[in-house]
Design goal:
Length: 191
């Protein structure tokens, strides 16, 4: 077991067991990828928006301007998480996830717009983002449940993290999705 500080925003230390073939941190070193909570004024926010456009919005005919226009006030309501790596030219955002706390009711939160740079997928970055979102939502905000609408190829990713898939498939933005959720009591230690 290795203890690594993944998410300094809450000051939480995560204990994890690196899985074979995963990248993200090395024994005896600081994590290569760090998770940060940012706001709309943060210097990394434009990079988060560019990643969301590239991976999530452009494929369905959106850009950030259209998203902001059609979903007024949502950007401000989200808690923004980014996965960051250091680079000689400065920090780079390689992943992001948004939490909408109190949606659709108090005590519940929705995870939205989870994206990882296509060149960095498969390295455990999405896992780190979701664990940070859960820790913040359950630990800091006291949520009882967090849910998401996941595209079908991502359902297994969430299930491996202990999330439960609801019945039925539905269309969202013309893409098939399933609802998945997790409660604080569902989280297993050392996942």
């Amino acid at each position: 077991m290795i203890s690594a500080r993944w998410f300094d925003g809450c000051g939480i230390d995560y204990t994890c067991s690196p899985q074979r073939g995963s990248i993200g941190f090395r024994i005896g070193e600081s994590p290569v990828v760090r998770i940060e909570q940012i706001n709309l004024d943060h210097p990394l926010y434009p990079q988060e928006c560019a990643l969301r456009e590239q991976v999530l919005l452009n494929p369905i005919g959106y850009d950030m301007e259209r998203f902001r226009r059609e979903f007024r006030g949502m950007e401000e309501a989200f808690v923004h998480f980014v996965a960051v790596v250091d680079h000689p030219t400065g920090p780079r955002v390689i992943g992001c996830a948004l939490l909408h706390p109190g949606y659709p009711e108090p005590g519940v939160g929705k995870v939205m717009q989870v994206a990882v740079d296509p060149q960095r997928q498969g390295e455990g970055i999405g896992r780190k983002l979701i664990i940070a979102v859960e820790s913040y939502g359950f630990g800091r905000l006291g949520l009882r449940e967090i849910f998401c609408h996941a595209q079908l190829p991502a359902v297994g990713f969430y299930e491996r993290l202990g999330w439960t898939a609801g019945d039925g498939v539905f269309l969202e933005a013309g893409i098939e999705h399933r609802r998945l959720s997790i409660r604080d009591s569902d989280i297993e230690p050392n996942r």
